[in-house]
Amino acid sequence: MDNQKTIAQEASLEGIGLHTGNKAKIVFKPGQVDSGINFVRVDLPGSPVIKAAVENVSVQAKSPRRTSLGKGSAEIHTIEHLMSVLFGLGIDNLIIEINNNEIPGMDGSGLDFIQAIKNAGIKELDSPRNYFVVREPIYAEEENASLVVLPFDGFKVSYTLNYEHTFLKLQFKSLIIDGVSFESEIAAARTFCLEDEAQELQQQGVGLGANYDNTLVFGKAGVIKNRLRFEDECIRHKMLDLLGDLNLLGQPIKGHIIALRSGHALNLKLVKKILQQKQKTISGGIAIGYQPVMGQRLEAVDIMKILPHRDPFLFVDRILELQPGKRAVGIKNVTINDYFFKGHFPQRPVMPGVLMLEAMAQVGGIMMLSPDENRGKLAFFMAINNVKFRKTVVPGDQLVFEVFAGKIKSKTGQVSGKAYVDGKVVVEADFMFALAETNES
Ligand code: ZN
């Protein structure tokens, strides 16, 4: 089981911001299940909380060469290296108190943040991580830069860097990212700039806290007053930045990111694209006004041509999306008139968990039995595994079931599914079915 994580106890560190030059102290505190990463400006009246989410990102033009959050007049600059470390270590929930407007730059990499989190200890919480699983390519583009994310069982980044500078010509790196590879390959890579642009940037108020120790400055003869930690330290730092920005999605992701010269602005554009996609594909999304992404839509009469179930044991009102043998999305509007509420429980009506499983299995049945070769068969349970009930379902809720096929053979079928209410998972399970000819049963 891949559970959510936070830290075991508090930790703190302090330093100078790379861009403002302001001194700040940050304190890490454990976060609750499903709370995400939250920054707290403890130096401002009312200690405003800013969630690390793409909708809170400040306009890029106002604070170039970094990723910053803003809410009202409260701002927090240069969150990306810390956010990257949290992504790399798989920390889902954390409170970060800060007494100024910029995260300390430390040595320009993620090392000190890793150390602080590890000193605090990583604590597993009693709830599974909710991955965004990439099902189809999503992309974002700018002049001379591109980002694509493809389906992949795991998380991988392939980056291509190419600058008009002798020491920053073509570099390519591809890496499956987990806690171990992040720490050994990415975390220590420091931020960088070109000597030619350094002065101009500082005149614009960028990099006021930067020096030759915390920033690699590339001159005509190479790095000035410093030594590289990796021969390709710059591309590793670009990957570090990308992971930090991607963490503003607010949930871990399964996919393969292919990046060509991307920077903060484009990274954030991709995060927004992913969020749009998420709303379209239901996982965490909305069913009302839902437009099918692919496949067909079935009403009750069509459902009854595929499933033998009838009232009061048909628990699917409509199929919003059907890709026969692959994927289906179905809904059930839960109302007080549903007969089971009469006994479960009249004083406090709650939909029985086993009926939610039955309903999800019916959506799975429609998906499995809709290809021509399986038409007319019946599906019987052989096993139900990995069941998690996360929230109760009550009259007025709309249950949205999303099911995916595992191996479907002529006599057996595997299906995994999640049910959502208002975009939140209420139950998930894996099913194994026996497929039988009607006359065999
Ligand atoms: Zn950076």
Distinct ligands, ions and cofactors found in the model: zinc ion
CATH superfamily of the largest domain: lpxc deacetylase, domain 2
SS strand fraction: 25-35%
Helix/strand class: alpha+beta
From the 3D structure, determine the CATH topology of the largest domain. lpxc deacetylase, domain 1
Classified by CATH, the class of the largest domain is Alpha Beta
Low-confidence stretches: 283-291
As for the number of domains, it is 2
Biggest sheet strand line-up: 19-20-21-23-24-25-22
Describe the 3D structure.
The structure is a single chain. This protein has 441 residues and is an alpha+beta fold. It folds into two domains: 3-280, lpxc deacetylase, domain 1 (2-Layer Sandwich), CATH 3.30.1700.10; 286-437, Hotdog Thioesterase (Thiol Ester Dehydrase, Chain A). Helices cover 21% and strands 34% of the residues. It is built from eight helices and 25 strands. The protein has a seven-stranded antiparallel β-sheet. Strands 10, 11, 12, 13, 14 and 18 form a six-stranded mixed β-sheet that branches. A five-stranded mixed β-sheet has the order 2-3-8-4-5, covered by helices on one side. A hairpin with a 2-residue loop joins β6 (69-71) and β7. α5 (233-246) runs parallel beside α6 (264-280). The structure holds zinc ion. Zinc ion is lined by residues 80-81, 191, 237, 241. Zinc ion (ZN) binds at residues 80-81, 191, 237, 241.
